[in-house]
Amino acid sequence: MERWDLNKKRESWGWENKAPLKDGRFSREEVVAVGYRGKLCMVNVKGNAVKEGAVYDVELDKWEEMPQGMVAGWNGPAATMDEDAIYVIDEVKGRLSKYDGEKDCWEKVIELEQLKRAEQITAGRGKICAISAKGERIIVVDVRDKPAKFWEVAPPPGMEVVAVHVLPRMISRQH
């Protein structure tokens, strides 16, 4: 594990070594880490398969085992909302779930045919955006509403979506 600290002066920028993983269990395929309450959480296999999870505590610079409920329900692409809530889409069932850290379980938010085969998600401003159907669909779920509302955004004609991000709002100042 390495860290690039942008808070340092520019002339001091560089990679810093941090606590390494104990073994190579996370080297089988691409691993995506999500930030959650000051920690990085990751699993070693995508989708519905037997997997292991690990949690890196940024403040303590140490690795911990992932809670069993968290790893058991991590069955697809994941994203965090403001580092306070983790959402995951079960790409087989099309189920969007939110992790409850107190109960160590995943709670269903909504289940949609359109979320099946979800490949990537991102979260921000109360919404989850998912890419599915090999980049042919963008599904937006407003998780602030109860029950959650959703809609589909069409990609530009003849194009496929490869990534989706929620960018911060830019406020222009009038002088």
UniProtKB/TrEMBL annotation:
This is F-box/kelch-repeat protein SKIP25-like. It comes from the Eukaryota. PANTHER family: F-BOX/KELCH-REPEAT PROTEIN SKIP25, OS06G0711700 PROTEIN. Gene3D superfamilies: Kelch-type beta propeller.
